[in-house]
Amino acid sequence: MTARSTHAVRLREPANRVSPRAIAHWAIEYLLFWGLGFGLSWGVAAWLGSRPRDGVPRWVTAHVGWLPVVVGVIGVLSVTVAPVWRYRVHRWEVSADVVYTRTGWFTRDWLLVPVSRIQNVHTEQGWLERLLGLARLRVHTASHTGSSEVSGLPVAVATRLAEDLAHRAHDLSDDAT
User: Fold this and answer.
1) Is residue 55 within 8 Å of residue 61, measured between CB atoms?
2) Minimal CA–CA distance to 76: which of 42, 39, 30?
3) 104 near 88, Cβ under 8 Å?
4) Whether 126 contacts 138, CB under 8 Å
5) 3-state SS, residue 63
6) Reading across the β-sheet that carries 120-124, which strands appear in turn?
7) Cα 157 to Cα 159: distance, rounded to the nearest angstrom
8) Which H or E run includes 120?
9) Do the beta carbons of residue 6 and residue 26 sit within 8 Å?
10) Hey, which of 10, 29, 32, 34 has its CA 20 to 30 A from 2?
11) Dihedral sign computed on CA atoms, order 168, 172, 175, 177
């Protein structure tokens, strides 16, 4: 009879942070999103508040002026707090046999992808990432849940990692599916 450990296994943090420029990238993305939301909420408030509308409850038209204020406050908080929080949480590491990432906002997601199971790996850049010299590394396996992404990497790091992982995955691949 063996004693079973009742202690939960705790993963250590991956060794690397994403680029600090990722904070600016995420802040600009949130600013664009919440700016659009603020503009739309302002338009809805102006349209509903201009005169009574059939089918719209009176309490809605009486308080619709608060909609842009609420959207604006949430937007300002998202633009100023979320990118820093995201930077503190998002980490990555590539070892000899796994790609290890940690993401999450309120709950943490630790993902370990065996290099031998990688089917393809590539980098991506959106227009904003190109302006900031950043890229996203995508690692795909046959399993959707086994696939991983690291955003906010400097372009040179993402490119080097993609090339290195592609070579190692090819060398370590097996015939298992």
Assistant:
1) no
2) 30
3) no
4) no
5) helix
6) 120-124, 134-140, 148-154
7) 5
8) strand 120-124
9) no
10) 10
11) negative
Give tens-digit pLDDT for 67-93: 999 999 999 999 999 999 999 999 999
For residue 33, give both structure tokens: 């999103």
Cα 64 to the center of its chain, rounded Å:
32
CA triplet 11, 15, 20: central angle to 5 degrees?
A: 125
Among 100, 133, 136, 134, smallest CA distance to 115 is for 100
Across the strands, what pairs with 136? 124
Residues forming beta bridges with residue 123, ordered by sequence position: 137
> What pLDDT, in 10s, does the model give residues 104-143?
877 888 899 988 888 999 999 999 999 999 999 999 988 7
Burial zone of 112 (CB within 10 Å; 0-12 exposed, 13-18 middle, 19+ buried) = middle
**CA gap 138, 125 in Å, rounded:** 11
Other Cβ atoms less than 10 A from the Cβ of 105: the count is 10
Q: How far apart are CA 84 and CA 23, in angstroms?
A: 6
Taking the C-alpha atoms of residue 134 and residue 141, their distance in angstroms, rounded to an integer, is: 23
Query: Which of 103, 67, 68, 61 lies closest to 86 in space, CA to CA?
Result: 103
